[in-house]
Amino acid sequence: MESDIIANNILIVDDQIPNLRVLTAMLKEKNYQVRKATDGETAIEAVEIEPPDLIILDIKMPGMDGYEVCQSLKLNDATKDIPIIFISALNEVFDKVKAFEVGGIDYITKPFQEEEVLARIKSQLTIKQQQKLLEKEKERLKQEIEKRKEIEASLYQSRALISSIVNNSLDGVAALEAVRNPRTGNIEDFRCLIVNPIMAKIFNQQSEDLIGKLVFKRFINKVELNSFDDFVGVVETGISWQKDFSYEYKGEKRWYSCIAVKLDDGFSVTVRDITERKKQELELNNFASIDSLTGISNRRIFDRTLGKEWQTCQREKQVLALIIMDIDYFKKYNDYYGHQQGDNCLIRVAQATSKVIKRPRDLVARYGGEEFAIILPNTDRKGAIAITNMIQQQIKELAIPHERSEVSPLVSVSLGISCVIPTAESSPKILFDMADRAMYTAKHQGRNLAIAYTSS
């Protein structure tokens, strides 16, 4: 069951008792453990006494509103990492940018759609669980590194002890001595004194074929360019060195963690295969950056990219364009065709939009629900309008029927465009707000339109 797989302690904060009842019944049916609070002060006290795995937080409450509660929790080291999903009614003013600035990670709207609520909760709890597992793995590795350092310190005492340890280690271990230029005294290479079978395997050699040989410099320059000087630094300064690196081994790219510690006029080195951990990290990073339904970038990557491109265009004094896009009458589409067809519609619209975006720095992201955002660096108003025209044409060619649309027999979109040259005195929020306003203008003027923001 879902609750057996992911963490399941959820706190719901809402001053409206009917909302608490609906959400509580919905979550308990899926075996989530549910706690409730009807105001911000009580919620903060409950979180500090027993931190939940996730908080569902209403924005509009008497006393402390949801923004203030979220901000207070994020300022507390003990509660700052708890994911918070905001609740907002469709007819309430909801500042999305502010919600994410104070630390929210998602939002759901009233009236509640059960499939959407459960999907968003499951997604955030899965991310949190993966992060916990990764932190646990990192802590374990940290402890193992400290343990290996203690072992390596003992190598100073006896060569016999070195041989005993390295030949029984599951990690690659070697001891090397410096080979110095007799005239200058500079280290020119390292001679292998001891190489255990695991390390020899990494070299694709037998241990006996490496001992006494000058092979280190040639090998390390092939694996990690310019790292030879780092090992020289270990010998000359006595400061240990640690780094993760990748290496092509038998046609497969593998990752290793390397630790080097000074040993007489040389060093000992321990190498551990961390390929599986690296794969987990890459999978987690991908999960955290990609919208699970549409396969395009999610809102987190959108926010990060918009901030980065704002700074870049500000520095280069180049124009930055933003397009906000919303599927027309999507709720009616969902109600008529069902959520499965609604999901399929979102996927096809996302793919069609992505086909239009060609340049490496351009970004298409799902901002939330049926809303998408397109970042276009170095693109003026004329170029952004041309992009919206191509997007509308691509979506029109999808020919997705929409019998409940009041503007077209096929699925259509409304788009808002904004273009500015960023300055230090302004912020990305200005660009977003202008595009958002332009998009709502397109809706008010009949939908199935692209409107560029103007100050008049």
Keywords:
456 residues; 5-stranded parallel β-sheet; 5-stranded antiparallel β-sheet; elongated; disordered N terminus
Structure explained in plain terms:
The structure is a single chain. The chain has 456 residues and is of the alpha/beta class. It has 17 helices and 15 strands. A hairpin with a 3-residue loop joins strand 9 and strand 10.
Briefly, what is this?
By secondary structure, the chain is α/β, with parallel strands linked by helices. 47% of the residues lie in helices and 23% in strands.
Main sheet properties: 5 strands, parallel
Proportion of helical residues: 40-55%
Radius of gyration based on Cα positions: 29 Å
* Largest beta sheet: strand ordering: 2-1-3-4-5
- What gap, in angstroms, lies between the N and C termini? 55 Å
| Count of individual helical segments | 17
Number of strands: 15
Structural class: alpha/beta
Global outline: elongated
Give start-end ranges of low-pLDDT stretches: 1-7
Mean pLDDT: 86
Content of β-strand: 15-25%
List the helices and strands and how they pair.
Layout: H1 2-5, E1 9-13, H2 17-28, E2 33-37, H3 40-49, E3 54-58, H4 66-74, E4 84-89, H5 96-101, E5 106-110, H6 114-153, H7 159-168, E6 172-180, E7 187-195, H8 197-202, H9 207-210, H10 216-223, H11 228-237, E8 241-249, E9 252-262, E10 266-273, H12 275-289, H13 299-316, E11 320-327, H14 330-337, H15 339-356, E12 363-368, E13 371-377, H16 381-398, E14 413-420, H17 428-444, E15 450-452
Parallel strand pairs: 1-2, 1-3, 3-4, 4-5, 14-15
Antiparallel strand pairs: 6-7, 6-10, 8-9, 9-10, 11-13, 11-14, 12-13
